[in-house]
Design goal:
58% of the residues lie in helices and 0% in strands. It is an all-alpha fold. The longest helix is centred in the first third of the chain and has 27 residues, at 115-141. The protein has helices spanning 2-11, 22-37, 43-52, 82-103, 115-141, 146-158, 162-167, 174-190, 204-208, 214-230, 239-255, 259-279, 281-291, 298-301, 343-346, 349-356, 365-384, 404-416, 427-445, 450-456, 462-476, 478-483. The protein starts with a helix and ends in a 10-residue tail after the last helix.
Length: 493
Amino acid sequence: MLLLIVLFALMLPLANPRVAATDEVQYYVYLRSLRFDGDLNFANDYARFNELNPQSGIDGSLLQPNRIRSKTGLYGNIAPIGSAIMWSPFFLLADGLVHVANLFGAGIPADGFSWPYIYAVCYASAVYGLLGLLLSYQLARRYVSVFAATLASATIWLATPLVWYMFVQMPFAHATGFFLVALFITIWERTRIKNNEALPGIGHQAARVYRRSWRAWLALGMIGGLLTMTREQLGLMLLIPAVEALVQYGRLLRARAALRPWAALFGRHVFFLAVFLLTLTPQIAVYQILNGSPRPASEVSGKLNLCSPHLIDTLVDYDPRPSSWCHVIDDPTAGFPPFAHGALIWSPVLACALLGLPLLWRRNRMLCAVFVLAFAAQVYVNGAFGTTWHLSGAFGFRRLIECTPFFIVGLALLIDMVPARGRGWLLVPALLFVAWNAGLILNASVFNAQTHLRQEGMHWPNLWAWQLEVPRKVIAQAENILFNRCRFMKNGC
């Protein structure tokens, strides 16, 4: 665990704290508008960020007339509010420090656009990512050695898009969402069975199924609401307690339990759902205020094709045409070149993690089953986004970042199968995976392949040449990469 913290500290000076892209702006403006304007009218916020970042595409997207909701007259915001809620303590702390500093003549604009506010949100995202890593490490440690958990955590972190969204495009929702998913799983797993003692009139099997405390259910309901508000598709993580509930009711049925354990278990589940729905109240209010109805904007819901035509492509797009069982008329992505997108193509280490995940079955069948189901649900929903499944314009398959706890446990189990004497050699493939991702990061951010990678995906066979050229380019531009990264960015810093 200490190694992860040290690596985080060493990488933090290389971070890129700024709010520039349209998605970043939409996540952030809730905080600025509510604190300084007291409303959800984002017209001035979008306009100001467009002035600060004229090449960000805000004018051509967020400020277009079709983004004004007919029912409310307000500009829309397709980003949910969960990230802003999670960032708010850091944002408000920055606001307080700005006002204190200005008492001593600092002259920092207290407007929500100046650097302290932006830095607070960006570094909050990075810290949440670190906390998610530490929780995932602890989860893996319940089943594997320190070496396996450490190597798996560091490799998945540094060889996948997670590191990009912790240090490059920091104010996205993914690092925060990852933390919430890891926290949800941690609390759920650690409170799943507290003890096996029999209660008066109830056998051991009946007693086992509802021993999670009310406080734990309260925490799970609140965190479940927060992760759903951070990214709507993360609500599918609630399949984890849902599957557990079905198993528990099945055990009670087989045990022919009396009414008391049924009522106790059902009461806890009702309480969990009530807390979950109550936690969603801010998001429902935002939907109502912005859209005129308590549901997501059409830009989000309108993208879904429930038969998930690009389910397989989410992992490997060997044939980008829609699946034969899910025909899509005039699919704009059908003409994509094969093997240009897909989570396992961008981050091949994930293939190893998925191979290791079934090893969890012998140690914890319930955990293995819900991990596989929750991961499959995330793959399904990404494939259901018929026009954006490929995530062109983004770095890697960012919609699967929140599945990082599953990947870390799977890779750790695979590593732990190797005899202790030979584990040192595992550093070689781990470093190769990390080097591959580092090359992609540099090519997608500071070198001349960024347009191809971010818009067209894995541009074969040119990608091999670009990756092999990275060491030479890093040496040639080391000073700028370390101390003058603004020259590589649109609009500078």
